[in-house]
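Hello forum,

I keep getting stuck at the same step: I have a sequence, I want structure tokens, and every attempt I make locally crashes halfway through. Rather than fight my setup again tonight, could one of you with a working pipeline run this one for me? It's a single chain of 290 residues.
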Amino acid sequence: MRRSLACISGGLHLAAPVVMDHVSAQDIISEARQVAMRKASLSTGQMLLRGALAGGILAYATSLAMVIISQGVVPIVAALCFPVGFVMLVLLGLELATGNFALMPVGYSAGAVRLNEVWRNWTWVYIGNLIGSVAYAALFAVAITNFGGSNGGPLGDQLRKVAEAKTVGYMSAGLGGWAAALVKGILCNWMVTIGALLALASRSTIGKIAAMWLPIATFFAHGFEHSIVNMFVVPAGMFLGAPVSISAWWVWNQVPVTLGNLVGGVFLTGAALSLAYPQRPTSVAQIPAA
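Reply #2:
Ran it on my machine without issues. Output:
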């Protein structure tokens, strides 16, 4: 009898506590405020480095999508594969400006970060994303053309086609094209920033991956405009000979899409969810205004 009780007691002692994998929406927003504080504390060098790495990884995933599309596969397959880049950069703790367009306002609304810290993060991370994306675009163009020995084949054709559509295509529509790029940027970053927040929706790696995958695949399948993705696609097309100028890239794509991404991230995700799930008392220490 004693032995039986000892076995039961030992079994109870060794039993691991049950840990819930799911994180509530309220706790996601609370954690996002803490994430904003950590991002605000990064040095300029760290923002540039982490931003450049994130830009390069996202560009790598975009080139994967272009490879899939150039092979004549149904485009939805590319959309299902594209999120690998977003997942990798988030799990590594890298910096993506479009995600930060929502995360930093969540922190600001709670008084966890100052306005100048928000703009500082957005600026340096965006520059870092640009450096990494364009650098990868140059390396990619060299790789698929054998240092200019060919035109890149079907993959090169696909990139030139996409780069032209994202710039000259909008330019040919005039103000309506510029406005379309803006709206596509808004709709795109609504889902991208939802993905950035859903990275906090699980305590397990596999749970985080699944949660992030859903909105990122959704935006890509719609063909909406992501400013960091375009930092690779348009320059890559230009390196491969697409008839696109730097001014056309920025005026007709990069500027309106970035503004759209900013609006979508700040208002549709950052502000909206901060209002939906207000800060709990004492959850974040208040920082006095500068």
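The chain has a mean pLDDT of 92. If your local run keeps crashing, start a new thread with the error log.
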